[in-house]
């Protein structure tokens, strides 16, 4: 007897935070590894393109139809894999909401991911772009991922060192696209051995505002949630996928040429000699922040966030992104790269 259900012509509007309409030819909910074995042994799977979907918070369906199979990751479970005096190692199902994992850690006084509070999406997608915010990244706590290779039908454990995690990227975004991450293993630290990371400027301002002089894992998480709610539009009220573009990493020659255009360009220098220019600054400089066109626009709160003003189709958001990229390149000579995965 079959354990998987092939849902046909599924409306995926509720499954993407841009809230754009699109229909998937097929959708299969993956709740365990057995579902994946059954899936890869089906003829339909081999004859049809597929897309792995978590919470749909970093994806843009740019067409009215996705003529393929969506594998929706719904693998649950947070389990303690091992524990010593200082650390707890957790094995977390790929379909668990990232925010629930953060809550679990905060409630249990485990430090390491509180700076990543309130990032939408699933745990299985977190390694794909090595999620990061407020001075922390998944790579700070990741031990390994358990992945199902959809080509070979094998389960593999991939240690962190082989995940090639970097700023908004990993091996899963570049060369190893055939795997579905089914579980993620992270190592977090017990509160009494942990020092919270409040280095990121804005955090200190909010802690001060909240009257917190000795931040704990819990109060820091609360401060980050407050900061995020203020800075980013909530996808439940206005469709968006967070930052649409990546910050621009540049070498010295590029840095020099942009400084010739504007001596006030902000740079963050990295230990490897490269510099990062905030993409939000470039977009704002070109006058895009807050602009609106029919159904789409650039958030007035944050220039990196493209928004669905209500009835947008995916192609309209893709069009706006393209327009911004061309304009920034023409005016400032820098090519923006989308952080959001555009599905064509
Ligand atoms: C309001 C808002 C704020 C955000 N803030 C941040 C932030 O601060 N930092 C940050 O890094 N990101 C941020 N994001 C982006 C997004 O939340 C993250 O990238 C998140 O990890 C995406 O998870 P998801 O489950 O929604 O992935 P999806 O959007 O469903 O998928 C994203 C990509 O990963 C692939 N994928 C998904 N799951 C798996 C899996 N199990 N195995 C293999 N491939 C998979 C998909 O095919 C797709 O290519 C934000 C988004 C929003 C809407």
TrEMBL record:
Q: Where in the cell is it found?
A: Cytoplasm
The record ties this protein, via Gene3D superfamilies, to: 3.30.465.10, UDP-N-acetylenolpyruvoylglucosamine reductase, C-terminal domain, Uridine Diphospho-n-acetylenolpyruvylglucosamine Reductase, domain 2
Its GO CC terms are: cytosol
Catalytic activity reported = UDP-N-acetyl-alpha-D-muramate + NADP(+) = UDP-N-acetyl-3-O-(1-carboxyvinyl)-alpha-D-glucosamine + NADPH + H(+)
Query: Cofactors per UniProt?
Result: FAD
Any idea what this protein is called?
Answer: UDP-N-acetylmuramate dehydrogenase
Entry-linked NCBIfam families? murB (TIGR00179), PRK00046.1 (NF000755)
- Broadest EC class? oxidoreductase
Q: Which GO terms describe its biological process?
A: cell division; cell wall organization; regulation of cell shape
Role description: Cell wall formation.
Q: Does the keyword Transcription regulation apply?
A: no
What pathway, per the record? Cell wall biogenesis; peptidoglycan biosynthesis
UniProt domain FAD-binding PCMH-type: residue ranges = 19-191
Q: Name one Pfam family in it.
A: MurB_C
What EC number(s) would the UniProt record show? 1.3.1.98
Signal sequence bounds: none
Q: State the InterPro entries in the record.
A: FAD-bd_PCMH, FAD-bd_PCMH-like_sf, FAD-bd_PCMH_sub1, FAD-bd_PCMH_sub2, MurB, MurB_C, MurB_C_sf, Oxid_FAD_bind_N
* Entry GO MF terms: FAD binding; UDP-N-acetylmuramate dehydrogenase activity
Q: Which HAMAP family match?
A: MurB
The UniProt entry, under SUPFAM superfamilies, shows: FAD-binding/transporter-associated domain-like, Uridine diphospho-N-Acetylenolpyruvylglucosamine reductase, MurB, C-terminal domain
Which keywords fit this entry according to its UniProt record?
Answer: Cell cycle, Cell division, Cell shape, Cell wall biogenesis/degradation, Cytoplasm, FAD, Flavoprotein, NADP, Oxidoreductase, Peptidoglycan synthesis
